[in-house]
């Protein structure tokens, strides 16, 4: 049982951070504010060669909206600074050689771990999504197509499935933009229901990094931006992962 | 595509509600504030005879904490006014003969719909949970044991999986306590990570019903209440389901 709360962790970490000047956008430089540069975080997160299955690739269940916007962003990865994030079965695969900070250790006696947003592996039935990240602009776009196993009100996505998709997009953005590791706060205002099978586009922006916290906003809309599904904000605590070979292990 | 937002719906509904006095707890009487009594909502929601599988029953994956607290609350259903809510595969099963308000119609060309929190049917791998509701006190308790498919940080439940569990517990509470149908706002402060396989207990309370909205709070803790995992609030919009045979269909 892990008893050290995020607040205590933040206070402990804050002592270390006091020697550094907090960074507020614009002019954000997480490399100065925290340990690793965004570039090194991204390159470790997106291995060029891997045998791991990437679940963020088109499949037969993707609708025309999802497919065409995916192709649009894929083009932008060639010249516009966007990076397509791979999505492996577990976060463990993304942080190979790294581990959670000391004290955050849980029993690990099961082998089939899945990140929640990849819990359903039948194509089209659960989460279909892909995240593009822009390291310089500190923003992300997530293309999200909820399947029939994500239902809430008949025919529409469960509010909780969108909340989880937001948390996951915030999470990847926070980690890559500045080693944001733990959700401290998630605040969502729901505006419209998302029909199952349709495309929702999440636009996430890092607003500021201050006092060891990343503050982000998200607007979720239909592709034509005519319908706003939800607006949200997220606050993440910065905390560095440790090398597996660390003497503190 | 459904374009009428919750805010517009709330304003439309508010005109109807203006003739009624808003109710604030204590002394809450949703039956006066809205259409159906809590008792009639509960009895329709919990059919005595049904062939539908109830997923909120103990199975081999439930740990000792989950099992013993389940038994405790089951005893309270006999004399203390608590009701164990059944949990079917889809919300469609819970509201048979009813439908969403006019205008909220989505294509329904797939047969295998699942409520998001029952999306994984392999025992112990995903969501294991059961909700108990107290109609008089307008409160709920949800026993939640996250499995390894709900992972976020290695070994711990994804923040989004807890957000969805909160939204679902709020949702059932809001509906039964006063026909709360749509999440308007969800605000979560995360305090500690939940180890996969352990028990988290969500305590939900309806704080007030006012201006066609239900305001609820939730605290999520370990069974011994030594560790607070998260605190949250939820606001739901009251809206009546319609009879399938309604002339408005």
What would the keywords be for this entry?
7-stranded antiparallel β-sheet, 249 residues, homodimer, globular, 26% strand, 9 strands, long-chain fatty acyl-CoA hydrolase activity (chains A, B), alpha+beta, two-stranded antiparallel ribbon
Topology summary:
The structure is a homodimer of 249-residue chains.
Chain A: H1 6-17, H2 30-33, H3 38-45, H4 64-79, E1 83-84, H5 91-94, E2 98-99, E3 127-134, E4 139-146, H6 159-178, E5 180-190, E6 200-210, E7 213-221, E8 228-238, E9 242-243
Antiparallel strand pairs in A: 1-3, 2-9, 3-4, 4-6, 5-8, 6-7, 7-8
Helix pairs in contact in A: 3-6
Task: Characterise this structure.
The structure is a homodimer of 249-residue chains. The first copy, chain A, has 249 residues and is α+β, with helices and mostly antiparallel strands. Chain A is built from six helices and nine strands; from the N terminus they run ααααβαβββαβββββ. Chain A has helices at residues 6-17, 30-33, 38-45, 64-79, 91-94, 159-178, and strands at 83-84, 98-99, 127-134, 139-146, 180-190, 200-210, 213-221, 228-238, 242-243. A seven-stranded antiparallel β-sheet of chain A has the order 1-3-4-6-7-8-5, sandwiched between helices. In chain A, strands 2-9 form a two-stranded antiparallel sheet. In chain A, a hairpin with a 4-residue loop joins β3 and β4. Chain A is globular. The model of chain A is unreliable at 14-32 (pLDDT under 50). At the A-B interface, α6 and β5 of A face α6 and β5 of B. Chains A, B: Residues 155-225 form the Thioesterase domain. Chains A, B: One of its GO terms (molecular function) is long-chain fatty acyl-CoA hydrolase activity. Chains A, B: It holds the Pfam family 4HBT. Chains A, B: InterPro entries: HotDog_dom_sf, Thioestr_dom. Chains A, B: One of its GO terms (cellular component) is mitochondrial matrix.
């Amino acid at each position: 049982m892990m008893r050290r709360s995020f607040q205590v962790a933040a206070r402990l970490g804050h002592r270390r951070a006091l020697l550094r000047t907090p960074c507020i956008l614009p002019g954000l430089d997480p490399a100065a504010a925290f340990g690793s540069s965004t570039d090194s975080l991204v390159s470790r997160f997106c291995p060029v060669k891997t045998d791991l299955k990437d679940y963020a690739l088109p499949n037969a269940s993707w609708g025309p909206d999802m497919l065409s916007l995916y192709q649009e962003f894929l083009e932008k990865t060639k010249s516009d600074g966007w990076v397509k994030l791979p999505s492996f079965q577990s976060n463990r695969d993304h942080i190979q050689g790294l581990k959670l900070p000391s004290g955050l250790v849980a029993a690990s006696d099961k082998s089939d771990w899945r990140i929640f947003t990849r819990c359903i592996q039948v194509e089209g039935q659960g989460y279909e999504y892909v995240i593009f990240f822009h390291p310089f602009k500190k923003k992300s776009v997530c293309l999200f197509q909820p399947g029939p196993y994500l239902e809430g009100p008949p025919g529409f996505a469960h509010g909780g499935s969108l909340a989880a998709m937001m948390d996951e997009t915030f999470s990847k953005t926070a980690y890559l933009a500045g080693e944001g590791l733990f959700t401290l706060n998630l605040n969502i205002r729901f505006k419209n229901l998302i029909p199952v099978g349709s495309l929702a586009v999440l636009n996430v922006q890092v607003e500021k990094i201050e006092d060891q916290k990343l503050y982000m906003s998200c607007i979720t809309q239909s592709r034509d931006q005519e319908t706003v599904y939800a607006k949200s904000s997220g606050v993440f605590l910065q905390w560095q992962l440790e090398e597996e070979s660390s003497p503190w292990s």
